[in-house]
Design a protein that fits this description.
2 domains; alpha/beta; Spore Coat Polysaccharide Biosynthesis Protein SpsA, Chain A; eight-stranded mixed sheet
Length: 414
């Protein structure tokens, strides 16, 4: 009888190879259109909303990058001070006093999450489109211009961008995230070719204002409001598009503790969204037939991966300990040539195959998402190996911690 852990391992390998194969099949027929974007048929009026809470370090630079946008239809930059306790309000006010395009609004009380501040700012928007960027993110000068053309298609409800890490990358954590974000840009665009983009992240996303109002904005009870609103739009039959050449540079966590909290929030918010839309699972429409199964399968890959790893690690340590103790007591050799098995193992071959295909896919993704020359340091082999064999493992562990928190600790917060 096949042991349970072998079944889990085979499931992990199968699902991983399935999605890698899916990405590859999408990539080849669409690779020439990867960076293409339509020109706007008319000048869509746009307002950008910037939620800010204690963002005195970066908010000024964020406003400046938006003011430098080459898109002529950008009418307003609405900066929402979510009752900051630092110097953010006075910094924003200086820009509002100097530039007519910049408007400062302040929430009556702290909303406690980005969704609340975004919804508050949306009340002041009267334009065709509404966009959002975080208070520590910096859109490139031509980013907006490379996004608005997708709204020529009437069924498009939202457009997202290519998010890259701005940090100086002095630490391994910053380098790992730089790799991760570039791979996300690549895979998200591939999903866009099959109408399956499942998130419009906060660093830079745009929505048709009438559609944004139709879904009543962001869900303030969800910890990942950018995932939830995207699923809501898909459920309503709207399309999500992506422009990877619309680059926005965001500040990623530079400390493991901050990164840990961020990823816990992302995982919990993702599970919250699955729970909210679970009734659509495997039903008609892109949300039920692809997005939900894809998202759930991604979670299962992480869980099964950590189960297999921990089982193998614990089993190996226990067996080695017992065999070593027995050998010492019996005064026999701890290891002999007969114990060395050089015969190929089917499960091992599957694992090696997954590793090789995954590495090749990662290299292609990094090639396609290379930032402008001279913008950042090149990714070295040590950083790449650390990302594949250390960073991805911590992601699986974080998923397990997130599930534990959801099951046993109900007081998690944004």
């Amino acid at each position: 009888m096949v042991e349970f852990i072998t079944v889990v391992y085979l499931f992990y390998i199968f699902i991983s190879l399935y999605f890698l194969t899916l990405y590859i099949l999408i990539y080849f027929p669409n690779r020439k259109d990867f960076f293409s974007f339509p020109k706007p048929e008319r000048e869509y009026s746009l307002s950008m909303v910037v939620p800010c809470y204690n963002g005195e370090k970066d908010i000024g630079r964020t406003i400046e990058t938006l003011l430098k946008s080459d898109y002529p239809g950008l009418k307003k930059i609405i900066v929402v001070d979510d009752c900051s306790t630092d110097n953010s309000n006075s910094i924003i006010k200086k820009y509002a006093d100097k530039y007519e395009k910049v408007q400062l609004v302040r929430t009556p009380s702290n909303t406690g999450n980005a969704a609340g501040a975004k919804n508050f700012g949306a009340k002041f928007v009267k334009t065709d489109l509404i966009g959002f960027t975080d208070d520590d993110s910096f859109p490139a000068q031509d980013a907006i211009s490379r996004m608005v053309g997708f709204f020529n298609e009437e069924k498009v409800g939202a457009v997202t961008s290519g998010i890259l890490v701005k940090n100086d990358r002095r630490t391994f954590l910053e380098r790992f995230q730089a790799i991760e974000y570039r791979i996300i840009v690549f895979t998200r665009k591939l999903l866009g070719f099959v109408d399956a983009i499942y998130v419009t992240p906060g660093p830079l996303a745009m929505y048709r204002k009438s559609v944004f109002d139709e879904v009543t904005g962001f869900d303030e009870k969800n910890m990942t409001e950018d995932i939830e609103i995207t699923w809501h739009l898909i459920k309503k039959g709207y399309l999500i598009r992506m422009s990877p050449y619309a680059r926005v540079f965001t500040t990623a966590p530079d400390k493991w503790k901050v990164w840990f909290r961020q990823r816990i929030r992302w995982n919990i918010g993702g599970v919250q969204t699955v729970n909210k839309y679970k009734s659509a699972f495997l039903k008609k429409g892109m949300l039920g037939s692809f997005v939900l199964p894809f998202f759930v399968s991604s979670l299962l890959i992480g869980v099964s991966g950590i189960v297999v790893l921990l089982y193998r690690l614990i089993r190996t340590l226990v067996v080695r300990f017992l065999s070593t103790s027995y050998s010492i007591q019996a005064q026999t050799a701890i290891i002999t040539f007969n114990d060395i098995n050089l015969h190929p193992n089917v499960l091992l071959l599957f694992g090696v195959l997954l590793m090789v295909v995954g590495l090749a896919f990662t290299l292609v993704a990094l090639k396609y998402t290379r930032p402008p020359e001279g913008e950042f340091k090149k990714i070295g082999p040590i950083s790449l190996i650390g990302y594949l064999f250390v960073y991805l493992l911590t992601q699986a562990i974080l998923l397990a911690v997130s599930i534990y928190k959801m099951m046993f600790k109900k007081n998690y917060s944004w």
